[in-house]
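Appendix B, Record 12. Input sequence as logged:
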Amino acid sequence: MSRLEGLRAIVTGGAAGIGWATACKLMAEGARVAVVDRSPCPEGEALGYVADMTDAEGLTTAIGAAAEAMGGLDILVNSAGIDLEAPTEAVTDADWTRVLEVNLTGPMRAARAAFPWLAKSGNAAIVNISSAAGLRPIPDRAAYTSSKAGLIMLSKSLALDWADEGIRVNAVCPGAVQTALFATSYEDAEDPQARLAEIKDRYPLKRVAEPEELAEAIVFLASPAAAYITGVALAVDGGRSFH
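Logged structural output:
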């Protein structure tokens, strides 16, 4: 029997990138999966619900509808996120608010909406997708790194607050991952390949990860195999955050 057989999962930001790779891995391991994203879910076996992380009412409604359709909820993966590369002195209040709203407040809202369902699970786990930049900052990303560091502390706080409800909460901290979001960090450079080589050089492993490699770590933390792990920020970053 697959290790997630019979479990039910929601992946926010699950229509592409790490989120979609995670949704596919969850399904491959036997879970029933619903994707909540502002873009439609790709064709497949996952249920799809359209909602934005900045819309508290819409997000709560989508998560409730997904959990209802699956007959409950055991796993929440918060993968939705945006980046902002700019000198701090050039970041507007609107820019700052938008990044924190999506990357930090959104996962809090999703967790809050999922809480009543997860508290009834008996196998409940939340995995928040933070970033290695939340462990060790990178230049011109003050809003992004602050939001991701905050998400790590939110994960630890929820792990503490909800332990008595049987809900484990962990964070995964990716480094560079080959997604559309990551591509924006180099594709518009004057020399995209030189810029990509510069990014890779920050990593001891000297390469960019595939989304499926992150999905492996996420699904492990969501699974009963990690039943005694909570409050952890797991770096899956090719060594950058200690390098």
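Strands lie at 8-12, 32-37, 47-50, 75-78, 124-129, 167-174, 233-236.
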